[in-house]
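Researcher: Good morning. I'm working through a list of sequences from a screen, and I'd like to move beyond sequence-only analysis. For each chain I'm collecting a predicted structure so we can compare shapes side by side. This is the next one on the list. No need for commentary yet; just the structure.
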Amino acid sequence: MVLFRNWVNDSNPAVSKLSLQKIATMAPVINQTDTGIQSMAIRHFGELLRDMNQYTWMLNAVVLESLVPLILFLEDTETRVVMACKHTLAICALELKWSTFPQFMEHYSFEMVVLNICNNIFISHGSYITDLISDSLGFLRSSRVYLRRAALILTGYLATLGRHLLLKDDIEVMLEAVERVLQDEDPLVEELAKTTYELFKKIAHNLTSSVIKQSFRRLFNFIYIKKVKLLYNYNSPGSPMEIKETDNCEEDVEE
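Model: Good morning. Structure tokens for this chain:
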């Protein structure tokens, strides 16, 4: 960590730029299948973001790109992965200047955390919602059942809050992606897929065809933010629920 800090503050702009790029390359490691490497990489990624917080304006895109896997892996069956994600998400929340997320860090319901994060994204970085939807839909192809479940829930909330940003072509792609899991081998994935599919169809039905009307609709939705209720009433089967942090990670985040 000290080396990274020194490199970022180096008087040579090339050294500083390379160190920031190195932080960015750590984000893909979040998807590692080895849980030991994965949890360590997730924590290091968060700690680097915290240590380099004076460069947030340069790292915001990296933080946003890492959000989808960090959120979805909250449903991992490995406690150390879940704890690492909670730790790093709390840091991301601070870096992105969210005000409400840290209160969920001690005890959480996955769906409530997703709703909270999506609300924060909508308010602070709403223009990224379509990119996050695309990232989330990619996890529907995962062989891990909990990732498919979590991806459906996350996509549903992102689409509901960001529906004014979606175009007809976007909705068609989203419907096609969810269709693939409408008959999933996992009954819960199938149930979540049906709910999400109906949400998308409703959004598609309410789309305006006129570009002018859609522009007004986007403006209206940014001014008047609707409060979204729970869409799924999802209970995480077999995931590490209500896990308390035991290694002072929360204290580190608040410093």
